[in-house]
Design a protein that fits this description.
GO terms for molecular function: magnesium ion binding; phosphatase activity. The chain is built from 13 helices and 14 strands. It is an alpha/beta fold. The protein has 2 domains: about 5-80 and about 195-275, 3-Layer(aba) Sandwich (Rossmann fold), CATH 3.40.50; about 85-190, 2-Layer Sandwich (Hypothetical Protein, Haloacid Dehalogenase-like Hydrolase, Chain: A, domain 2), CATH 3.30.1240.10. The strands form 3 sheets. A 6-stranded mixed beta sheet has the order 8-7-6-9-11-10, sandwiched between helices. The longest helix is centred in the N-terminal third of the chain and has 13 residues, at about 85-95. It is globular.
C-alpha cells in the first residue's frame, strides 16, 4: 500500500495552459485526506503557490529542484541549501560573458532579463497577472541581475538558456559547484551541488518515517529522474522526455493535457482511498 504521493507540476499536474484539470483537483483533494500529497517542483514557491492552494494541500512543498522546502501555512523556509553569494556572482559573470539567457530565483521572487528574456518565463509572468494580492506570483523583469543578487538573502537557483548551454554546463567551475538538470532541450536549471528532487524527497520521507518503496512519484522531465529512481513507484507521463521514461516503472496512458490523465493513474494506484468518492469511480 502506497503511503505518499509526490507530484511534479509543469508537464505533469499542469496542462500546457498552466491550469490543472478539475478532475485532478478533486482527486488530489480526496486523496490528501488519507495520505500526504507533496508538490515536488522546479518552480519557485511563489509560482507554485496558486496550485498549492487550489489543490487544498497542507504539506510543505519541495521547490527549485530540491533546493528548499517551503511551508505555505507558516510562510517559511523549513530547510534549504542555497547558492553561496560569491559563487552566484561568478556564475552570473560566466553566463553573461557567453550571452546566455538567464533566470534568477531569489528568496521571494523570480527575475528575468529585460534585454534577453526567457520566453517561457515571460509567459509565466503573463499568467501571474491573473492573480492578485498575496497569491500573485512575484516574477519581475530586470535590467541588472548583479545588483539584485548582491542584495538578496538567498539565491535558490539559476535557469540558463541558449545554444551553448551544454558547453557552459561543462565548465570546471560549474561542474564543481552546481548540479545542472535539463528542463528543456536548450535550457538547464542550476542549483547548488547535490540539490535534486530525489535527495530532498528522500530526506522528507525519512522524517515522516515512510519507506521509499511506499512512495509514488510522477514526473515528465530530466529533473524528475532522481525522484523516480528512489521511490517504489516511479511514473512517467506519456508526454515525458524519453530519457525519463527509461527510469519509470509505468507510463501514463494519456498526456498532461488530458483532463483524466493523472487522475486515472491515481485511481489505479490508490483504489483503497479513491474508489468510493473518486470522480472516475463510476467509470
Amino acid at each position: 500500500m502506497y503511503q505518499l504521493l509526490a507530484l511534479d507540476l509543469d508537464g505533469t499536474s499542469l496542462k500546457s495552459d498552466f491550469t490543472i484539470s478539475p478532475v485532478l483537483v478533486d482527486t488530489v483533494r480526496v486523496l490528501s485526506r488519507s495520505i500526504p500529497v507533496l508538490i515536488v517542483t522546479g518552480r519557485h514557491h511563489t509560482a507554485a503557490g496558486p496550485y498549492y492552494r487550489e489543490l487544498g494541500l497542507t504539506t510543505p512543498a519541495i521547490c527549485c529542484n530540491g533546493t528548499y522546502v517551503y511551508d505555505y501555512h507558516q510562510r517559511a523556509v523549513l530547510h534549504h541549501n542555497a547558492i553561496e553569494k560569491s559563487k552566484a556572482v561568478q556564475f552570473l559573470q560566466l553566463a553573461e560573458a557567453r550571452h546566455l539567457k538567464i533566470v534568477v530565483y531569489l528568496q521571494d521572487a523570480m527575475l528575468y532579463s529585460s534585454e534577453r528574456p526567457v520566453m517561457h518565463v515571460a509567459r509565466l509572468a503573463q499568467w501571474a497577472e491573473g492573480f492578485a494580492g498575496e497569491v500573485k506570483p512575484i516574477i519581475r523583469q530586470v535590467d541588472d541581475f548583479a545588483t539584485e543578487v548582491d542584495a538578496a538573502k538567498h539565491i535558490w537557483k539559476f535557469v540558463v538558456e541558449g545554444d551553448e548551454v551544454d558547453e557552459f554546463a561543462q565548465l570546471p567551475f560549474i561542474r564543481e559547484h552546481f548540479t545542472g538538470e535539463k528542463s528543456w532541450s536548450n535550457r538547464i536549471d542550476f542549483a547548488s551541488i547535490g540539490n535534486t528532487k530525489g535527495s530532498a524527497l528522500a530526506e522528507l520521507i525519512k522524517q515522516k518515517g515512510i519507506a521509499a518503496e511506499n512512495v509514488v512519484a510522477v514526473g515528465d522531465h530530466h529533473n524528475d529522474i532522481s525522484m523516480l529512481k528512489m521511490v517504489g513507484m516511479g511514473v512517467a507521463m506519456k508526454n515525458a522526455d524519453a530519457g525519463l521514461k527509461g527510469h519509470a516503472k509505468i507510463i501514463t496512458r494519456n498526456d498532461n493535457d488530458n483532463d483524466h490523465g493523472v487522475a486515472e493513474l491515481l485511481y489505479t494506484l490508490f483504489p483503497e482511498y479513491l474508489k468510493s468518492s473518486h470522480p472516475l469511480g463510476g467509470q
